[in-house]
Structure prediction request, 474 residues.
Amino acid sequence: MFPPVLVLAAVAGGTALGAAALASARWPYRSPGAAILLWQALGLSWGLAAVGALAALGAVPGRYGVAGGALSGAVRALRSTALGFGAPTLIAAARLAVLAASAALFALLCWVLVAASAAVIVARRRHRVLLSLLAHGDPKVPGALVVDHPAAAAYCVPGLHSAIVISAGTLDLLDAAELAAVLAHERAHLRARHDLVLLPFSALGRAFPRSRLVRQSHATVALLVEMLADDRALRQRPARELATALLRVGASGAGLAPSGALAAVGTADAEVAARVARLLTPQARLPLHVQALVCCTAALLVAVPVTLLLHSF
Amino acid sequence: MGYQHVQLLKVGCPVSAPGCPFAPAEPVFSCFGSEVRVTCVNRLGELERAIMDVLWDSTEPLTVRQVGLRLINRDLAHTTVMTVLDRLAKKGFARRQRDGRAWRYQAAANREAYVTELMLHALDQTGDRSAALASFARRVSDSEAEVLRRALESLGELPRD
Prediction:
């Protein structure tokens, strides 16, 4: 057998196991930035290794790694089935089947990324048009838009034309210092384009809507992104303001959505509490050498499948 | 599109009204492109908003002329109002019906319906987590909200509602 298939399969399985372990680990709270990098690497590495392992099954040994071998494997199998000579037809058919599965998985992963991006763009455009008709400025929250609604909401619309939106309910709920902390948090999201970090994971959710691991991964990365924005906000505002703002907005839970829409809540429950605990009893960041180790692991995770795909040994 | 921009340039962009969110020195919605186009796009949005306000405040369908008369402190050409109303109708925010030789416009839905749509999209992030918006704090269940309220009290802060 072609050895890369074993390595790639091991990487695909290992990244899935690693994601499950990372989702329940607590060290990422201490250095959310490094952990997010590791999550991105896990996702990318899993995709490459899963596509690559299938391709390697149908590949023939060649100079240009699994990708080149898969192409020549496909050509050889097609030729032998079409012309009726060469390798036995059963093997050719099996080879074509795994190569088709590999191509289909690759196409699916690309497609969900495009579809998720398109859905996000459409939703944001509609949201921005509505904001331009309904929202207004308010001196209490400079640079943000205010929507007149009693429910507490504070969010940002990322993108080239970004906006921070605060509901009238939030204006009543929070004092000036807490509002400033919320604005600092949202500005951190917008400046660092945290939405792009989450996009691949919401795309994976589209590809595998039933997968518990994918849902868990998405929720974990979303929480880490919030913690990262909290950390950025702390550079400008005291932790306590941000913590009380979080508690107030989280506890307000003003009923707006029809009761059925709330059924999905559950994963969000522990998030606010985890963020508040982190703000009020801060833990030391991971030591620099541990962070470097995490980054090296992330680089290695991507480098292994890429090398096997493009290079033969 | 191009035609409308040219037309707006010809009649002169309306001066943005006080209280407009797009007026501040640091624009909330920035645009690529030339200076002239940027200001016109922003002012076009501001004009749409003013005209929607007129439609929302009215109980009956209005003609273009009536809309123009109700836009206080603005000296707008008839064609400008007509163009913006037409855009709003195309976007689905206004509905129009024939009345003799003129069109009459009304809002497709009331202001509250659109505000509700905005807030549902903003608050219902836990459902789809589509990454379109980023909420400060996601909604929590009632039992968890109680836990948060107690945490707030233990900090010596009174929960406000």
In short: Chain A is about 70% helix and 5% strand. The first strand of chain A starts at residue 145 and ends at 147.
